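Hmm, what's this shape?
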Amino acid sequence: MPSVRIVTDSACDIEPNYLESLGVTVVPLMVRFGEESYVDNYEMRGKTFYDKLRTSQVLPRTSSPSAGAFHKVFDQLTVDGSGVVAILLSEVLSGTYQAAQMAASMLPDRKIAIINSRTASVGYGLVVLEARDLAEQGAGFEDVRDAAQSMVDRLVTMYAVDTLDYLYKNGRIGRAMHFWGSMLSMKPILVLDPEGYVSGQDRVRGKSRVIPRLIELAGERVPFGSRIRLGMCHADVPAEGAKLVAAAKQKWDVVRTVETEIGGVIGIHNGPGTLALIVLPVE
């Protein structure tokens, strides 16, 4: 058994039962539609979630794991002297990171590293899988921790939303921008900046321009032809996701591809039709 255990949260959007089969511990967030609560990506994911989102009369909300939930996991995984590297949803997008930090502070004699991924969905899902592979190969606690942090620092995450409705409902844009953007069929292209905040990068008119522009903008950050690990996640648009992966593979030397669906925690804010591209340069 590896001496380093990998922990993540459910918003990395890689199927949690698959991660658990690899020895990765997943601490879930919750998604709430009014009085109805679901364990993120365990009890609801994929098309089931987006169908409910489209028809719900209430704006769904999410809640982070408690410090107690993380404390229980960290205690169990480190009691035998193993180290833990927890790779979690961006600190500025959720209270998950702070809860994990609080839990780690309650176990000061244990080897626990809390990594702020500064990204979302499969962006840090990629890092989780790479860190797990390193741990499985026998890498030590410091090596896995430092490699995970280095990957986070190199990640490029950008995405496009299909509709401005959900950004507006969640208070991310104003009424005027929502009105004119919808009237003109504008598709915003957004990026997660080095601190993990969402910022506008560009706008294109019409769905057909989204994939070429995502590829072009990512290529400005990671030169075409570079060796990369590729992540793609989508919100109920698998055909568009497949096109994005195919287009990316024509531009970069892809050594690993991870494709998944955007779960409820992120999907609530961006809505169906969202398409995301994650590029992780290989050192």
